[in-house]
Inverse folding.
């Protein structure tokens, strides 16, 4: 069995998924088996589809002319005077839809597909690519009114052949049976699970229902909004439906099984629920289609970010207030403290930006760090203003020429210095008329009180900011269950 993807020019926004592709001579492009992503152009896809159908009809013609192949085909055909559990009529046409024979079971359109999802776990949630990976057992059931059922066969009641009124069959039996053409909306990758063989099976039910089930790993794209990162909650829909048939012809129903105890630990709290009604109908340019599936809601765990980012940033801002208590004349100590805190916060901000997903605006954690950086920067600027006001301008005692003459006095004719070299203290005593040009009394009082004002203003501003921030984002609230808190969900 192979997974086949084709492109329909009439519905360019949709990719067709053949869950079963059993034809022995059907060719599939080699690029479909590569591990990496692949693309199919509309021209190639249409050509492959026409070629596959031609080869399929050629294969059926060759089978009819070859007795050995007819013998293998006849294993599922009804034969006169032969016992059977179920079989196909001799005139069975695999190309015709079962709902064209709805009169055989007294049923009217729309036809119904039944899906069952046994979810093992949500294996991965990728913020960068905005995708979600699911490991599950995917089952689809449909009614085939053309089946001939031997209701008196003992196999319907034997445990070795399957549950009551059901018979287990090999997936090879679906080579000659019609199967639905399905689409998974937003599909990224579709992988089948294998051990020794592919993990898949077929069941024929006594009421002429066929069920095909297989183990898969599916990756779908999700529209995520990271404006509140890392205090965000996301919702992702897994939708599957018929590719060709609109909701007037085919509808569907589904149910899922999910055991939370089997879920591995991720960076999210996860809740799976049924698909809401608004997602059960998809309107596309080619028509309106019915969809079934599940909805996954997940909320990010915040403890890691609180311990690694929020708490250190909070403490660094508080430590910056210590600079207001340091004597402004102790320039190395006070300046070193503020510059170090400023650079550490810048480093934290850069690290967070590298790990954060893309958002349409400044996300929650970036906003918090920017405010913390601004507060530390404000303390640094406050000290810069103080240093500017403490700077004293002094009038020089002499010009450069006078200073040189004073340091190197000229000699008289008798060899004595015309002017002896004097000590600085002596120079100061002889120049009382040159006073220092310093701060006025009013400015000096301002310098002495500016640190006190900053010490009183900064803490209330920071506390008020934190109060508004945490009330707005409410990280303690469980956004998956609105009636409970996050603590209730963890417990």
């Amino acid at each position: 069995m192979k997974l086949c993807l084709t492109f329909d020019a009439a519905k360019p926004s949709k990719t067709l998924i053949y869950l079963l592709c059993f034809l022995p001579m059907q060719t599939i492009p080699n690029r479909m088996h590569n591990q990496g992503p692949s693309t199919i152009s509309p021209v190639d896809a249409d050509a492959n589809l026409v070629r596959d159908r031609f080869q399929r009809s050629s294969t059926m013609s060759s089978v009819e002319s070859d007795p050995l192949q007819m013998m293998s085909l006849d294993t599922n055909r009804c034969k006169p005077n032969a016992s059977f559990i179920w079989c196909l009529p001799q005139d069975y046409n695999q190309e015709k839809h079962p709902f064209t024979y709805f009169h055989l079971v007294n049923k009217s359109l729309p036809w119904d597909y039944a899906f069952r999802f046994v979810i093992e776990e949500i294996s991965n949630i990728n913020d960068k690519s905005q995708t979600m990976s699911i490991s599950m057992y995917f089952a689809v059931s449909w009614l085939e009114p053309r089946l001939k059922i031997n209701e008196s066969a003992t196999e319907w009641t034997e445990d070795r052949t399957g549950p009551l009124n059901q018979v287990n069959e090999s997936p090879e039996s679906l080579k000659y049976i019609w199967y639905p053409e399905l689409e998974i909306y937003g599909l990224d990758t579709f992988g089948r699970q294998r051990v020794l063989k592919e993990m898949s099976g077929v069941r024929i039910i006594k009421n002429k229902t066929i069920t095909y089930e297989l183990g898969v790993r599916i990756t779908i794209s999700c529209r995520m909004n990271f404006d509140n990162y890392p205090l965000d909650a996301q919702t992702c829909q897994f939708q599957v439906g018929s590719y060709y048939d609109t909701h007037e012809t085919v509808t569907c129903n589904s149910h899922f099984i999910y055991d939370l105890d089997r879920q591995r630990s991720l960076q999210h709290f996860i809740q799976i629920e049924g698909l809401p009604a608004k997602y059960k109908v998809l309107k596309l340019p080619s028509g309106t289609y019915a969809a079934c599936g599940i909805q996954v809601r997940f909320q990010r765990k915040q403890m890691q970010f609180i311990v690694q980012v929020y708490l250190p940033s909070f403490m660094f801002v508080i430590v910056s207030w210590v600079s207001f208590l340091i004597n402004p004349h102790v320039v190395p100590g006070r300046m070193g403290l503020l510059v170090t805190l400023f650079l550490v916060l810048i480093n934290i901000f850069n690290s967070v930006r590298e790990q954060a997903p893309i958002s349409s605006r400044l996300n929650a954690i970036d906003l918090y760090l920017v405010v913390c950086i601004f507060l530390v920067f404000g303390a640094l600027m406050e000290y810069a203003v103080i240093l500017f006001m403490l700077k004293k301008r002094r009038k020089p005692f002499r010009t450069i020429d006078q200073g040189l003459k004073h340091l190197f006095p000229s000699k008289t004719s008798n060899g004595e210095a015309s002017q002896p070299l004097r000590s600085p203290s002596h120079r100061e005593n002889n120049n009382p008329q040159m006073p220092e040009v310093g701060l006025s009394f009013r400015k000096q009082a301002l310098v002495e009180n500016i640190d006190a004002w900053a010490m009183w203003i900064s803490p209330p501003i920071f506390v008020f900011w934190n109060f508004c921030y945490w009330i707005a984002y409410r990280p303690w609230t469980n956004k998956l269950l609105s009636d409970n808190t996050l603590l209730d969900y963890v417990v």
Notes: The CA atoms of residues 82 and 411 lie 143 Å apart. DSSP finds nine helices and 17 strands in the chain.
